[in-house]
Amino acid sequence: MTDIPGTLAPYAANEHGSLGRLHAESSHAYRSEYQRDRDRIIHSTAFRRLVYKTQVFVNHEGDMFRTRLTHSLEVAQIARTAAGILNVNEPLVEAICLAHDLGHTPYGHAGQDALNACMRDYGGFEHNLQSLRVVDLLEERYAEFPGLNLMFETREGILKHCSARNARELGDLGKRFLERSQPSLEAQLANLADEIAYNNHDIDDGVRAGLLDESELCELELFGMQYREVTARYPDISARRRMHEVIRRMINYVVTDLVVHSAEQIADAGLDSVAAVRAQAGPLVGFSDKVRRENRDLKRYLHKNLYQHYRVLRMTNKAAKVIRDLFTAFMEDRRLMPPEHSLKAAVAMDNDGEAAKARIVADYVAGMTDRYAILEHQRLFEPSERT
Questions:
Q1: Looking at domain 15-311, does it have CATH number 2.60.130.10?
Q2: Which of 78, 117, 137, 226 could form a disulfide with 249 if both were Cys (CB 3.0 to 4.6 A apart)?
Q3: DSSP H helices in the chain
């Protein structure tokens, strides 16, 4: 099955003009290629693991906080809505959103930073590249090819940023970083849906955890405007319901701005094809100047008051130590890993040297959930823990 002609804008990504899959496959009888990508991602092992991977708070800190899985679902919901309004490829947008964090380490950005430091002499570690590695190589679900064998546009959307050095090794997928061309509108939309989701939902989790103060949040224009409207209209509702209503309105406000401003940008550009999207000097999907400033102020506030809160830093410091300890132990003796991973590390070392071995170790560590990493650390370093 293919995209139905006439149902998408001419500048929307479509499978007819796609560079396709790394490994050729026959079309499906009743699903489009991007629907197949979405379905493959949902059924992948890496996607299931996201339920036990940190967004801001480590998994065991509470059952009500967001995880990488719930975050990915929220990103996809926001992006699907906007895609429908802009008349771009909704299944593609959804697939990108669901896959964008597949390569994330346990413990969120603290885990990524720690693993990147461990891999400094071996090519570094970046979760966007790891997400691509997961879907291209690490998932083992199909008899005829490694990975999930996703469409070019889905893989392109997963790779939000990339160094020139890495881009040169990625063939057609890396060209846009070298030529400074633009990704599809669907990829641009997924990127901003991610920002909308984490900005707004991190407020919710931060307040729930007692780390953010509503009175301070009200000083921010983006939050304060919605908060005042809600309290004026619903003075007697509970604090939790009030916060949910404020967050809901904030998301609606920024998504509305995003689709209105993006539609104007697209119309002004006079796009008639995907090629025209790629030839633009900059992204066409974006916020108005006013909302961009409001988002910037919110991100600065969250960085200072949530991500740098001493309680969050204490946990992320412990998490970084777990990652460093695991990586160091496995590099010193790859036999400490389960046999499957130990064998891969041995083969990589024999064929391509220590950097290749380090990449296999990084694959194993990055694939862990928060709680599995804690258990592995206990098994390796606590004498009383059963192995």
A1: no
A2: 226
A3: 33-42, 45-49, 68-86, 90-99, 108-118, 127-133, 152-158, 164-167, 175-179, 185-208, 214-217, 221-233, 239-269, 274-278, 289-302, 310-332, 339-352, 354-366, 370-381
